[in-house]
Structure formats: C-alpha cells, structure tokens
Amino acid sequence: MEYEAVIGLEIHSELKTATKIFCGCATTFGAEQNTHTCPVCLGLPGVLPSVNRKVVEFAIKAGLATNCKINQYSKFDRKNYYYPDLPKNWQTSQYDLPIAEHGWVEIDVEGKRKKIRLTRIHMEEDAGKLVHSGTTIKDSATSNVDYNRTGVPLIEIVSEPDMRSAAEARAYMEKIKSILEYIDVSNCRMEEGNLRADINVSLRPIGSDKLGTRTEMKNINSFKSLEDAINYEIERQADVLDDGGKIIQETRTWNPEKGITQSMRSKEDAHDYRYMPEPDLPPIVTSAEEIESFKKSLPELPDARRERLTKEYGLSDYDAGIITSSRAMAEYFDSVIAEGVDAKIAANWIMGDLSKNLNAENLTIENSPVDAKRLAQMILLIDKGTISGKIAKTVFVEMWKSQDSPEKIVKDKGLVQITDTSAIEGIVDEVIAKNQKAVEEYKAGKKKAIGALVGQIMKATKGKANPQMVNEMLSKKLN
Amino acid sequence: MKLNEKSAHELHEMLIAKKISSVELTEEVFKEIDEKENKVGAYVTLTKEEALKSAKIVDEKISRGEEIKILSGIPCAIKDNICTKGIKTTCASKILENFIPPYDATVMTKLSAINPVVVGKSNMDEFAMGGSTENSGFHVTHNPHDLERVPGGSSGGSAAAVAGGEAIFALGSDTGGSIRQPASFCGVVGMKPTYGRVSRYGLVAYASSLDQIGPITKDVTDCAHVLNIISGHDEMDSTSSPAEVPDFTKSLIADVKNLKIGLPKEYFVEGMDSEVETAVRNAAKIFEKLGATLKEISLPHTDVSISTYYLIAPAEAATNLERYDGVSYGARVDGIDVVDMMKNTRSEKFGEEVKRRIMIGNYALSAGYYDAYYLKALKVRTLIQKDFTDAFKDVDVILAPTAPTAAYKIGEMISDPLKMYLQDICTVPLNLAGLPGISVPCGKTKNNLPIGFQLIGKALDESTLIQAAFTYEKEFLK
User: Fold this and answer.
1) Distance from the B434 Cα atom to the nearest Cα atom in chain A, whole angstroms
2) pTM for the whole structure
3) Which domains does chain B have, with CATH numbers?
4) CATH no. for A421-478
5) SS3 for B472?
6) What digits encode the pLDDT tens for the residues A329-382?
7) Is B415 a known active-site residue?
8) Which member of A80, A145, A275 has the closest CB to residue B328?
9) ipTM of the modeled complex
C-alpha cells in the first residue's frame, strides 16, 4: 500500500543566558565536572528556585519570531520522574500554560513553500549528565553525575504533525535553528547538544485523514540522523503494516552506527509525570508593553531578509534562501557587498567556492579562513580586470591557505591579467597559424569555432589573458 | 523563678544590667537539659560547644560596653527542618540522619546578625508530618507538663524546649498547625505568620504553598521580637512578600477597645473538649470586658478544609520528597542497580506517616485522578480563602480554639491517622488561606494541661494579632 508519513518534532534548544534558569551558576559548556553548581541547582533540601528573567525574555522572543501568541500569564510546573541525573527527581517545566502557543514557520522543500504550525514553546531546565565507567549505564559498574548542565535553560518547541517527509522535517528544523540564531537566543551547537529533537512518526494510507499509531525517537542531534532516522522509521513501519502487523506506540532510539531504530520502552512503561503547578514560583506575568518591546528588539528574521535580498539585489528566491539560512552567512554576505561588490557575484562566490571549502573542512562561516573583506577585495580585482574569473579561483585557493591580501597573492604569483594586446600578439598569431582548420571553419561562417582558438590562447597564457580582449583580437585578425 | 523560666526580654534586661552573663544563662539551660532531656527528648542534636562560644562573644561585647540586640546571647532552639550551615539538619528522618547543609536558611542568616545562642536542633514529626512528634524517626518528645502526653507537633521539640526551660525561645514551622498546636499543648505562645512574611529559603519543604516559619516563645513580647528579626522579603524565596515589615514591638500595647472579634461557629466543633471550649469562651469574655466587641461568624467551608489540606499537602510533599533518593546526599541503601538502590533507600529510611502521605499525594496527582482530587482541592481552597475574606469584612480578628483538645496521651492517636488528621480542623484553614495566626495560653484543664486559643488575622496583619494577644496576656497574667 502507499502510505503518507505524518511527522512532528519536539525541538529542545539550550538558551545562551550567562546563568542558569533558577540560580546564579554559569552555563558555560565544557567546565570541569561539578564546578558550576550551588545548593539550588543541586536540589539540596530547603532550597528554592528564582526565575532568571532573561530566560523568559529569550523564550518570548523565540515565540514572537515564530508567530506565536505569547501568554501574558504563564506558569511553571513540576514534571515528576526518577532519574539519577535529575537532582530533585522532577524537572521544572511548563504544562498547561506555556509561555508561547499557536505559531508557525514556513519551509521550502523542492520549490514548494509550506507552513508548519507550532503547538507551543515552553521553558524548562536541563538535567545533569551521567558519566559512566563503562560505555552505557547497563555495562557500567559505577556512574557519576556531573551537575554542571543541571538547570541550564531550555526551550522546547513543539510542532504540529505537519511534516510529510524527512526532507520537510529537516527543512523545519533548519528553519528553527536559523530563527534561534537570528534572534540570538541559542548557540544552536548541535554537537554540544544544545539543539536536539524528539521525532514522532506515524503512517497512514494516502488519502486518509486519520492519524496512525506513532513512535517516538528521542535526542536526535544532527540533521543527518534526523533524516536517516525518519526514513528508516517510515520504511520499517510500512513493512510492518504491509505484513498485516500493527505499529506499537513506543519510544525508539536511533542507532547511527547500525542505521536502525530500536525499541526502548513501550507506552505501558511510559512515565506518568504527575504534573503539578510549581508552588515555589509565582506565575510569570508579562505586560503587553514588555512583549511589545521584545518584539521591537527582534532583528530582521530569515524570511524577511530573504525577501529583501530578492527585491533589493535581484537575487533569485533560491539563492536568497540559502544566503539567509544562517544569520552568520547573511551577515557575511552583507559585509561583502558593503565593499561595493555586485550582489549576485557575491552570492555566487559564497554559495560556491566558499561553502564548498567550508563544508570540506567542516568549518562554519564564522571561522572561515577567508573573511568577507578579503573575498570582496578579490572580487573587486575581477571587476577591475586585474584578474580573470578563472584566475580568481586560483587566488581564492591561495587566500584559503594564507592570510595574504588578494593583491599580494596576485602579484607574488604573477597572476595579473594580460590586458596589453602587444604582450600576446605573438601568441595569437602562432595559434592562428597552427589551427588553420578552425580558422577556415570560422571563416566559412561557423562562428563557434572561435572558441577553440580562444581556448588555445588562454592555455598558452596560463589563463592570464583577458578572454574578451583575446576575442576581439581574433575577430579583427580573422575578418 | 529560675533563669531559664524567664522570657527573652526579661533576660535581655538582666544581661545589659550585667546581673547575669550569657554564658551563665547558657550553662543554666544546659543544666536543665542534662536533668530532663532524657525524659522530654526535645532535641535531635545539641550544640553546646557552639552555643557557649556564641554566648562568650555576646558577653565580651557587653563587657566592652557595646550595645547588644534584644535576642543576643539568649539560648534558642531551631526546629530540625531549618538548614543550619555545618550543623546536622535531619528533619527527624533517618533518610537525612547525617545530612549537614553547606548553607544557612535565610532565617539563620538573619538570626546570626544578633549572635544567637543556638542550643540545638529540636525534634519534630518526620518532615513535619504529624501533630504529636511521635512520628520522629529518632525518638518521641514528651510534654514537659505531663511526660505521658504528647507535646503536639510537628514542632513539638521546639514547644517542649521552650515550655520546659530547655530553651528561651524557638523557631518552628507551621504547615497545618505545627507551631500553634504544640504551643497550645505546651502552654507557650506560637505564631504562624502570613504566608510569605518569613522567607522559606532553607526550610526543608513539606508542603511549599503552606509552610511558614514562625516563633515559639514564652510570651507575646518575645514573639514580636523574634518576628521582627526573621520577617522580610528574600530574593531567594520568590513567594516571600515584598510588603514592608512593621516594627511588631510597636504593637505591644494593651488596648483592644473597639476591636471586632469574630467567633466562627464551625470551630466550636462537636466532640470538642468541654474544658477547652469553656476556656476559649472565657477568653472571649475577657476580650469583651476589655472593650472588644464579639460577633458570631460563619466560615462555611471549614468542614472540608481537612480533606482539602490532606490532598494539597501530600501532593506537594510527594514531589518535594522525591529528591531523597540516595544519589548525592543523605542515607543510601544499596541495591542491584540505581533504581533498586532508590527504592531500597526510600523504603527503609522513610517512616510510615511520610510514606502514607507520599502515596496519598502521588495518587492525587496521577493521570486520571488529578482533576477529581488535586484540582478539586485547589478549587475548594479558593472557597476557604473566600470564607475568610468575607468574614474579615465584618471583624478585625477571629478567635477560635487552637486545637479541639488539650495534649493527649502518647500512643492514644497514633494508630488512627484519620482521627489524628481531624485534630487539625482549627489550624489548617489558615494555612490554606495563607493567613497569620497566634496561639496564646488561656488556662489549664483540671488535669493541669495547658489550653490555648488562636487569633486569626488578615493577611500581613500580624500587628493586630500581637496587640490583641498582648492585651489578653497582660490581663490573664494578673
């Protein structure tokens, strides 16, 4: 049977506040174990939480940036479950009055734009980290707990089950990541676990509007795993259904080494979280004025920026979408064109050679060895005719290796474009002499034949000749 | 009168007049402890060394001619659910038998400004769950007025210590009557301030929306002095009130003229001890004689306050006590894996009453039961609050018995939890409404057991309670 996949995501994002959600401890990643702790985040007897208002601000901004309604009256709740990395054995989270609800974002997949609805965004605290003596908790004789991460603020962004493919799910998560980066509330470093997703997947016969039984995969922390896990789960569920079986509602884990999902616990083993309003914290009341001022403080968001780039600079929607997908890339682009570079050429270089090199070395654009200024200088050398577009590729490679200016590289490597006709007159004549066949074809009306001659001349000049000039010289000599 | 029978403000006068030293006074208290502690059992931990050190500091200040604060150098008891840095804080539970907090509760930080002489950490019902101090994980506390009887609870150790001269004043905590009821059983003054008046930071939580720290003292004057020190907004407690704190000693005025006192008919319940009823009604008459007006009022939801309390408090307790799992502090009983270890630790180290309330609480919060129990209880709670709001339109304070009986015999109630819960009928409504209440001695039964009445005030109006209680006390002691 043909099935349609129904996918929903719960994205957890650590917020980049300086201190934890309910105490004054630092949130910095990678500190020595249990050094960022105090009685409050250790959940010692007698302690009480106090809300970090910055967390509320960041959560509201995330809500506003995703078109949510902000709840001016919101509250925290206790989500109770026993786990050794959770010192109080409850997670302070939000249950029925989350900070933001009913939002949406747009994604573009295969040229189609689609709205994905957000159910809610709520605030909560992160748990600590278990450090096992073995590889997993099961094969460890002992485990220690590092409480540094305990109380680091999180927002959980819950989508409606509006996605129909792994590609859509990926595009959605990329969009969320991009928005959170734009509004500067999360570092979104997936490798450090500060952006991770729980995925719900179910199948239904195409045409049906009833939801099938879903499975959940927890803590997916890369885009590749997200796509692979969804694709695997869609196939697995389809096989089960095709064989006349039933999908069991359960939590499964994604095993990236084996490329499969595995059953973790069934619905029967699911926790009853016994949610209860947090009596130690008064409700979070936010005034309309505060919300308005947060709204005003938001930067231009990715969708608006993309639209602006298409309108102002005539970039294609696709190119503008890529350039604006991350705030860092959009800012890089802005810096390049601020130097007077043509926008389309800048976009081509950023999406082309720059991205290719960054990806190859697994670098982000913030850490690019070629900064926006040098890239702009290089492109300006093409504009001025100092180098050809082709030579520029060589210059770019050199710039990647050293911090020298493009001018210096061009000079040192002798890559300056030849614009003086006398300098290559001899070469042009030689090429004409040696390629009489092409010359005759050209003269017989096959204008394209000139290309072969240009190519020969470029080769002979090691690409330094200005192709337009060569064209003109040839036309003159052959007519 | 022996030194340790005097009030803190009397002893303060003697200290600054250099008639006694704080060390002498402290030695006197410890002499009393040596004599009767094995019979009374008011304390879990005694801190004689630290107490004498503190007393010495105060004596040095006096001898240097420095001014000392009113409670400086006066021996006090701290209920063992209030965190004391470097001193064991057990909540009278085996699960925290060896727990030494690395921090001070806010009330301790405030107290330390006046160089208190902390005699020790007083016994209580485990995690403040109980009304007799029989639920202590370590030992039962006996009423100094009659050693066969309970001192009340859960702050029974604090009340017994003050009543028996083993401390001059004490701090207790009150979630459903745990300061007022033992004060009444032991013949001392006890006040539960308005919810939020005193910071709960460092008070080991039983039921967070009900818990409040308060003074247990020999008289109303001492009560005002202690309240002055411990009250006030605290950044560490988001539920603490930002309201300004008045000087409560300014209310130590003998005047109740035109004070409108309400007598809630629902508090004079059936099955109430007739001697208690008579004593409380006599107290009302004294108020009337002194110029107050009496009015019978109704608090119609009083009858459901017990069931409301016994859903909300256990629900909060069930989550508050989840942290005692043997992982990073407190007792641990090993198991085959971490879950087994947690189960063993909690099964072995929590007492029966604690386990009972954890189970009730979890039941009330479970999926499918939440709306019928916990949510319903929250709704009834607002009705109880409204009862008081309505009543306070007509009266300034409400007068009621603190408990339906005087101190009962040890073992008499412990096997019948429900009967024991019903004892809280006069005290729990205030906690549910967040209102202040003070218990004041008003006579004795023919068996020579203390009886107390309770004055209930409007939110943040402890001043009126102190003034009324002070006026009565002055008349009563004549």
Assistant:
1) 13
2) 0.91
3) 3-252 (3.90.1300.10)
4) 1.10.10.410
5) helix
6) 999 999 999 999 999 999 999 999 999 999 999 898 989 999 999 999 999 998
7) no
8) A145
9) 0.96
